[in-house]
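Follow-up to my earlier ticket, as requested here are the two runs.
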Amino acid sequence: MVLCSSCELPDDDGGGDPERYSSYKAVTLSRTDFENSTALINSQPVEKSGKIYVKDNYLIVNEPNKGFHIYDNTNPENPIKIKFLKVLGSTNLSIKGNTIYTNNAIDLITIAIKEDFNSINVTKRVRDVFPELTSPDGYYNNSSSDIVVDWTLKDN
């Protein structure tokens, strides 16, 4: 007969302590820093591409949990990087007219595009629409009141 009096196993749904069980560490921001993090910045190298979108003569490529690479696609044989739209925790977007709708980690935001991607303005934020980002191995960050915007592999 085997007795296990102090065995702790992670929850099947990934709800176990990520610090103890996950191979990843949560990247978090305070609510204030998080809400002020969306910005249009200089182009960045693509590290990991996600979904691809087309808007007029622009290609928009998602960098999961980081934002969107914006290319001038006037000449489809030679797209030119022009900007990076930093939207932490983003994985998807929709565009209608000059408005982008995207997930900003747990929030839904709308972004007005101005002057052919020369400037943007976050026009609306609906808080807590989406579930918290889980780690690649399925854990939540239950230990912090900050917002999870990404996960990084732990140094072992």
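Run two:
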Amino acid sequence: MSLKLRIISPEKILFIGDVESVIVPGLMGEFQILVNHSPIISCLEAGRVVYDDAQGRHQLNIASGFVEVKNNNVSLCVEL
């Protein structure tokens, strides 16, 4: 089982795909999202989003944003 990750910015879609995990820069520190994570909506601060897919580990620097997790779907709306 995997997570469905979608990362969008106001300008474009940055990534859509299946991932094993996502690490995001929350307001109170980084936190990791794994399969079957509890539903959550959280603001994000400047930092690095890290996600692992079949091609390996990827990183994206963001200025701010928010994350929503529900039913193994992870949506990130970010400012770069």
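The only thing I checked on run two: The chain is about 0% helix and 70% strand. Let me know what else you need.
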